[in-house]
Amino acid sequence: MSPLQVTRRGLLGLAGAGAVLAGAGAAAGYGFSTGAPDDVVGFRGAHQAGITTPAQDRLHFVALDLTTTDRAAVDDLLRRWTVAAERMTAGRETADRGAIPADVHDAPADTGEALGLPAAALTLTFGVGATLFDRLGITDRRPAPLAELPGFQGDRLDPARSGGDLCVQACANDPQVAVHAVRNLVRAGFGVTEVRWSQLGFGRTSSTSTGQDTPRNLFGFKDGTNNLKAEEPALLDDHVWVGDEGPDWLRGGSYLVARRIRMHIETWDRTSLDEQQRIVGRDKGEGAPLTGTAEFDIADLAATGPAGPVIADDAHIRLASAQHNGGARMLRRGYNFVDGSDGRGHLDAGLFFVAFVRDPQRQFVPVQRELARSDRMMEYLQHTGSAVFAVPAGLRDGDDYWGRTLLA
Questions:
Q1: Containing H/E element for 308?
Q2: Tell me: the pLDDT tens digits for 267-303?
Q3: Where is the Dyp-type peroxidase C-terminal domain (predicted)?
């Protein structure tokens, strides 16, 4: 290890920085550790990190397309990506003396903007899209649930913000660490992949551990109160991890659904508090359902008042609930985004929705169809991007690498 690598990780201890990942001990075995004092999330395990890992504060998500049909070239890239990813999640450069090579006439192997920064709980999660199988001539290995989502009422999807052969989700507690990770993987892919689209996110909009408080979305409401948690392994087995129904290369993995949802912030901000709360089905301060007093009170969807159901028939929490959708649940892992303005004085802002599910066709599709058709909140939302990826299981030993069992 070079002195620069020691410095990057040593600085964290010298500064007394780096928080212990909340709830990590209770979720041991799901690909992450406590992280103290280096704030390092384990890269290898039964499942990929970045799914049940306590959600970090920042996101850089990238979808890529292959520029080759050479399966060997793709396999080689995934080997190199794995090496670089494991080093970066440990707080190291992509290669020894990567940022400052011994010969100044050599191009650096690492772009260098993360020098001196801690690992910041960086996780890198890898997935493959349906189109990859056609490009590489392995359509027989594509699982049936990995298919393009159907069109939903009100969708205004931009093809330039949708789809992709591959994806990498980088989550970290420092935006520069997440951006550095994606930048270096994209750089390593030149000649094999090209960026199709990407999304930066801040301020997680879900909690994936019981040790985390429920965050708020850009409408100001607590988001993801009833999200699945890392400390619920039986529920994760039922709703998140692919079982024997999946192909060998995907068992123990999951499916990632991504949706870029623009929120009409200015219109929402002119809506009365009472109307906002009726649309959501919760109070804005505490986050309690309108039938309760505390955030985690169970919503009584049968309760009625003088004007009808206390939680309206078109309220978001009713239509998104497991009770309303035959028990369907998801592990949500979304982020807020603000991508400047649209040139007409309105923020291009909203929610980058990310969810991990065992079967997107049975879990996400029926829920989103119901929301698109009946949710009053849809008046304030516009879905502009969409993608589905299969996320293989975690890497168990030092010779294993991303995509090995798929491309073998």
A1: strand 308-309
A2: 999 999 999 999 999 999 999 999 999 999 999 999 9
A3: 214-394
Backbone angles phi, psi at 357, to 5 degrees: -140, 160
Task: List alpha helices for 333-374, DSSP H.
Answer: 364-374
Asked if the structure places residue 20 within a domain, the reply is no
pLDDT confidence bin for 15, thresholds 50/70/90: very low
32-41 burial code (b ≥16 CB/10 A, e <16)? bbbbeebbbb
Structurally, the chain folds into a number of domains equal to 1
Query: Which residues constitute the domain of residue 331?
Result: 55-70+121-180+189-407
Tokens of 348: 């291009």
Q: Does some domain include residue 38?
A: no
Reading the block at residue 382, the tokens are 């516009």
Dist CA 185 CA 50 (whole Å):
17
pTM over 0.85: yes
Q: Nearest CA to 148 among 134, 160, 136, 162?
A: 162
The dihedrals phi and psi of 134, each to the nearest 5 degrees, come to: -70, -40
3-class DSSP assignment, residue 86: helix
Mapped onto helix, strand or coil, the DSSP state of residue 220 is coil
Cross-strand bridge partners of residue 387? 258
Confidence of residue 38 (pLDDT cuts 50, 70, 90): low
Phi, psi of 59 (to 5 degrees): -135, 140
Do the domain assignments include residue 41? Answer: no
d(CA 218, CA 264): 10
Rounded Cα gap, residues 211 and 214, in angstroms: 10
Residue 41: both structure tokens together: 């999330």
Residue 36 domain-assigned (yes or no) = no
Residues in the chain, overall count: 408
